[in-house]
Amino acid sequence: MDNDENIYANASSSRASPREGAIYFQWWKRPSRAAAVCLGLLCVLLLAGIISLSVYQRNQSTSYNNLTKARDQLQKERDQLQKERDQLQKEKENLNKKIKGRRCPEGWREFEFSCYYITNENKAWSQSREECHEFGADLVIINSKEEQVFINGLNQTKNHVWIGLTDSVIEGTWKWVDGTPLTTANWGKGQPNSNKGIDQDCGAIWDHSGWWNDEKCLSKHKGICEK
């Protein structure tokens, strides 16, 4: 009986060994699956991080490009403003030089930035203009009421004087001798009237009152020169 019991015990022991090995194998296998799951999650997180980083970098690159373009545009505008400023500075300096150096010739009168002179002889409009040219001037162009008042003070006579105004090119379209259209006028009552169809294509000032009149260009008057 003892031998049989020993044999049974040995047999039982030998059958138990494989079960213990299976338990050991399953214990070893479970951590491997957990590690694989963790590794997979890490890969997913890493991929998500890479994608997020790529999107961020792309957005940053777009923002950088936009800022670069804006900076370049501002630099161009700044350079343009600097050029305009320099140009205005030069013009200011030149104007100051002209103002400081402005000295009207003897017999001429100064007003603002121009010199004025009334010719001595009565001549036709075109001849009076030629005389002004000899002085490096032209028949006066009146640009403001203030200038008109000044000219009224120059002409202290009751005689007509020529000004640089004509409608000889297109009847009724009055222009100054430099080609600019008439914008501010000082016509006398009922003027200009062309005197019932007779060509009166040249402008004159009646007298010291300052009112303008259209006159026959061949009429002979003194002229007011300006330079």
UniProtKB/TrEMBL annotation:
<dbReference type="Pfam" id="PF00059">
    <property type="entry name" value="Lectin_C"/>
</dbReference>
<feature type="transmembrane region" description="Helical">
    <location>
        <begin position="34"/>
        <end position="56"/>
    </location>
</feature>
<keyword id="KW-0472">Membrane</keyword>
<keyword id="KW-0812">Transmembrane</keyword>
<dbReference type="InterPro" id="IPR001304">
    <property type="entry name" value="C-type_lectin-like"/>
</dbReference>
<dbReference type="InterPro" id="IPR016187">
    <property type="entry name" value="CTDL_fold"/>
</dbReference>
<dbReference type="InterPro" id="IPR016186">
    <property type="entry name" value="C-type_lectin-like/link_sf"/>
</dbReference>
<protein>
    <submittedName>
        <fullName>CD209 antigen-like protein A</fullName>
    </submittedName>
</protein>
<keyword id="KW-0175">Coiled coil</keyword>
<keyword id="KW-0430">Lectin</keyword>
<dbReference type="GO" id="GO:0030246">
    <property type="term" value="F:carbohydrate binding"/>
</dbReference>
<dbReference type="InterPro" id="IPR033989">
    <property type="entry name" value="CD209-like_CTLD"/>
</dbReference>
<keyword id="KW-1133">Transmembrane helix</keyword>
<feature type="coiled-coil region">
    <location>
        <begin position="64"/>
        <end position="101"/>
    </location>
</feature>
<feature type="domain" description="C-type lectin">
    <location>
        <begin position="111"/>
        <end position="226"/>
    </location>
</feature>
<dbReference type="InterPro" id="IPR050111">
    <property type="entry name" value="C-type_lectin/snaclec_domain"/>
</dbReference>
